[in-house]
Write a structure and sequence with these properties.
The complex is a heterodimer. Chain A is an alpha+beta fold. Chain A has six helices and seven strands, in the order ββββααααβααββ. Helix content of chain A is 24%, strand content 8%. The radius of gyration of chain A is 18 Å and the shape is globular. Chain A starts with a strand and ends with a strand. Chain B is built from five helices and eleven strands.
Chain lengths: 232, 188
């Protein structure tokens, strides 16, 4: 794992005018969880095998491409994909870790290879957006691309990743909508942070998270684990 | 279906009382009740997410400090209930799970029950262990984010579960679509 020092960033969801979010120091896996990693986990925790998992916790696409319940299809070093949030969470818990919070993930993902904060660099954003527009092929093995400023690989360019609080992202349909739901349904749009207008990639990730449910799986969605800096 | 009658000691009164339990067999794999989590209810008792198994149940998330939409949600669910024939309503249960378990104490939840004249025999207000909150929200499709002012932004989703905890109907914002749920309840 890599240590990510405490930092701050202005999230997309922030209330207008509110100060940047402070993120405490934490640790993040150097690379996404691989097929081989997940295979070992299933051997130890068979209730998460695709033939045993409760439908409540994963949809029909869960590990659907695997050759059988315990054999990944393709390169063992590829990131595991088609896993639900519940399964990703269980994996991290089994390692004594947890999923990263959205703020943590986004903070670590703000770094380019040579600077901790690259969101304001148009060229950097453009590179990520190019990847977003191309994600059609089978992901490569993890750790092949250069590490970022913190020594973390593949936050961009390989697969999308689950975060613990994926379901904290909501626009419209706010609880405080009161009598006329439609009137305030898009109130959240006013809270989008204009200062990060350059960071369209962040907006795309946020929109993607909004579309997720905990049991969903997709062929481009994997995960990595995190832990508190204070953990052993 | 096997019907068993077992004895149970009712908390606080010390006298055994017969409680009818229907053995419904193993839970369906898509049952919300498959999430094994212990909740604390408004009387401080520990209850399971599936405590109302055997009854059609409306489940939603709330928080007691919520100044506006939660009373709206509770009022909407009550209005929905009122539109049901009495026999159907008597069979229905309501389970509300707190989004703010650190502040929503049993005492505060009892306050909500009395303020809203809630039928405490059929409704339970509960709070989960804080570390299980995201899972419950994920199972119910509820999205929430604590705000810097101490309030909570969350989606107002009410889900009708069948007698085994399977989702039958989910509606977001009760005002428009309550008839969908009413029709489903009536069809059960």
């Amino acid at each position: 794992m890599r240590s990510i020092p405490a930092g701050s960033y202005v999230p997309l969801y922030s209330d207008r005018g509110s100060p940047p979010v402070q993120v405490a120091a934490f640790r993040l896996d150097r690379v996404p969880v691989t097929n081989a990693d997940f295979q070992s986990f299933l051997g130890m925790h068979p209730q998460w095998r695709r033939d045993r998992i409760k439908r409540l916790f994963a949809d029909e696409g869960y590990l659907a491409a695997w050759t059988d319940a315990l054999t990944p299809h393709g390169d063992p070093a590829q990131p595991v994909v088609s896993v639900s949030w519940f399964a990703a969470r269980a994996y991290c818990e089994a390692q004594g870790k947890r999923l990263p919070l959205e703020d943590e993930w986004e903070l670590a993902a703000s770094a380019s290879h040579d600077r901790p904060y690259a969101r304001d660099r148009a060229a950097w954003s453009a590179t990520i957006l190019t990847w977003y527009s191309q994600r059609t092929t089978t992901p490569a093995a993890v750790g092949q691309s250069p590490p970022n400023y913190y020594g973390v690989h593949d936050l961009h360019g390989l697969v999308w990743e689950w975060v613990e609080d994926f379901n904290a992202t909501l626009y419209g349909a706010d609880n405080r909508q009161g009598g006329d739901g439609n009137l305030l349904r898009f109130c959240g749009a006013g809270a989008l942070n204009a200062a990060d207008a350059l960071d369209y990639a962040n907006f795309m990730r946020s929109a993607f998270r909004t579309s997720l449910q905990g049991s969903y799986t997709t062929k481009q969605l994997g995960f990595r684990c995190a832990s508190d800096e204070s953990d052993p | 279906m096997i019907v068993m009658v077992i004895s149970s000691i009712l908390a606080g009164c010390g006298a055994p009382a017969p409680v009818e339990v229907v053995d419904r067999g193993p839970l369906p794999a898509d049952s919300v009740y498959a999430l094994d989590v212990a909740l604390e209810d408004d009387s401080g008792e520990t209850v399971a997410l599936g405590q109302h198994r055997g009854h059609p149940t409306l489940i939603s998330m709330f928080y007691a400090n919520c100044p506006m939409a939660c009373p709206t949600l509770i009022g909407d669910v009550r209005a929905l209930e009122d539109s049901l024939p009495e026999a159907v309503r008597e069979d229905l249960r309501v389970l509300l799970v707190s989004l703010d378990p650190e502040r929503d104490t049993p005492a505060l939840m009892r306050g909500v029950i009395s303020d809203h004249d809630i039928d405490a025999d059929r409704w339970s207000l509960t709070r989960p262990p804080p570390e299980r909150l995201r899972e419950i929200a994920a199972v119910l499709g509820v999205r929430y984010r604590p705000l810097s002012d101490g309030e909570m932004s969350h989606s107002s989703i009410v889900t009708l579960l069948d007698r085994d905890g399977r989702k039958l109907q989910t509606i977001e914002g009760l005002n428009q679509d309550a008839s969908l749920i009413v029709n489903q309840v009536l069809a059960l």
